[in-house]
Amino acid sequence: MNSLLQVEDLRVTIPAGAARLTPVRGLSFELEKGETLCIVGESGCGKSLSSLALMGLLPKSAERQAERLHFDGIDLSRLNERQMADLRGNRMSMIFQEPMTSLNPVYTIGDQLAEPLIRHRRASRREARDHAVDLLEKVGITAAGRRMAQYPHQLSGGLRQRVMIAMSLMCSPELVIADEPTTALDVTIQAKILRQLKQLQNELGMAMIFITHDLGVVARIADKIAVMYAGRFVETGTARQLFSRPMHPYTKGLLSCLPVPGKTAPGEPLGSIPGVVPALIGESTSCGFSSRCPYAAPLCEREPDLTERGSNHACRCVLASAELDDLRWEAA
Fold first, then answer.
1. Of the candidates 237, 233, 262, the residue with the CA atom closest to the CA atom of residue 250
2. Are 272 and 329 spatial neighbours (Cβ–Cβ below 8 Å)?
3. If we measure between CA atoms, which residue out of 98, 85, 77, 114 comes closest to residue 178?
4. Which of 51, 184, 255, 264 has the most CB atoms at less than 10 Å from its CB?
5. Other residues' Cβ atoms within 10 Å of the Cβ of residue 86
6. pTM, whole model, 2 decimals?
7. Hey, is 107 helix, strand or coil?
């Protein structure tokens, strides 16, 4: 089966004075139709910039490079801005992180929802409106017809996020990139939106890249997971593999920050990872996690490759083996 999305050695560089910032450093992955890839990691590790690079929405000062960047056989790196605009919102779309800054405050919800269908599918305004009302109802918005005449500031954060999801689905895209779409919502609204998003994905057969720092969310929806740190994938695998037998110390550290039902006692402190994500200026010659890793060794002075450690399970660590099975992170 041909992959819907093929990415090989994706890099993003941004001028930073006399130096160059490299927030995305050689990402490679494939995504099949109907599949969900979750990219997880701390803030500042390059998750959002990698998604903007895929959509061709990087800042003007940023430069995107890739050995391969194919969407359904189309070489995205060779498309001009007009050709890319024909794909965005049509066959591939994005749910942005903050709906209040992503929705235009001077246009009604109805006008903004109808625009993709009118532009890409040449639908009439009535057809676009009817489809928008139908999608608003599918994402759980009541009185959808009345909401069409409202402006973004008249909606709550949860409603704005649902509008963004409906907007991304107006043209039934084959790929949706969701950049932390539930981060600012309370857990009950978050759970509803995740259920609705998964249900719509199944109905439309679309692939999804879900970007988050919340491993609890990942456990609910992921087919595959890529753990990202300092601009690179440090571990990739299925959800079952990463939750049952994580290999990279960073993945283990992230999991230690979560309470385990039935094991973590009420009030018991959770684990924490000391230090911060390193500056991503210039090229790296050593493991980016070595300054925070309790197992750092002289071997870590060279940059490790992402190496297969089992069927569809890869890790970027020279020490990833049984000797790390007993790694425990200290509580904060």
1. 233
2. yes
3. 98
4. 51
5. 13
6. 0.90
7. coil
